[in-house]
What does this fold into?
Amino acid sequence: MADSKNPLSEVRERIDSIDRQIQELIAERAERAREVARVKGEGLSAIDYYRPEREAHVLRMVVDRNKGPLSDTEMVRLFREIMSSCLAQEDPLKIGFLGPEGTFSEQAVRKHFGHAAYALPLGSIEEVFQEVAAGHADFGVVPVENSGQGMIQVTLDMFLTSEATICGEVELRVHQCLHSLTGQLADVRHVYAHAQSLQQCKTWLRLNLPGVECTAVSSNAEAARMARADDQAAAIAGESAGKIYGLKTVAKAIEDRADNTTRFLVIGRSLFPPSGNDRTSLLVTVNDKPGALYDVLSPFAKHGVSLNRIESRPAHTGKWQYAFFIDVSGHIDEGNLKEAVAEIRPSVASLRVLGSYPVALP
It folds into this structure.
């Protein structure tokens, strides 16, 4: 009687063989990363090897090659972790974020830099900027915009006084949950959350917890920490924060908008070369004269540069004076955008390139 293998055993053997090949190739990739370090020279830290434009190019090729069954998001996540581990062989990147542990900002750090980077929790967005400027953090990750609630003003205002540059962006799909010690909605008498999260869930709160007091705190992770001390309190936070602080989930996906997404900026101390698909952020202050804003915007149209976003803030240089934050497509070193900016400079009070950086990946 002919031998016949169990079909399931054959599949498992094939998976084991593939796993060995994957492991060998990852080890080889890590060794090539060491070669890059040796070529660049000894005594350098991880920030000297980190090239966001190269990383973005590699990940876009991953997306272009992907034929399934894994999604583009999953493939990017896997390759991001491989690159993160290879980069961190000698000295991991230190990334400041709005803490404590368990915030959406920390999730954005992990999505962009992988789990091999050292995540440094800080007490405020202002402190993230300060630690990057002082060199205590290689980069920082700060929230800048929510799809439903708009711009986060404290982040914009920090660019008015900080010399930080924008090195990247991260888009994070935000799912809000309600957590408490008991896990019972009927026990909730007080809700803690970041102000943005309270706004993102205001309809759900009105319908499900009418009359319950809501208090804004510094972060959702801080809300979870506070809720674990009171069995009549609840916190709005991500699913991971509830687990970290030992809470039970009362309700999931309580955000009012199904597409609730927060955009984060990666801040650093340097500008980087083009990646092939970039965005540039500008900070412009105008002279007080008729047509001042037209003089800023018309060169973009003239040179075929797509305007992505414009936001005004008090300039902090005098009463009723305003600065404009402008996002455009392209890299500042590329022809059309470079020509448009050169045309704008003589007609404005000041113009600063906050950064040119790769467009967010899935």
Notes: Residues 75 and 159 are 34 Å apart (CA to CA).
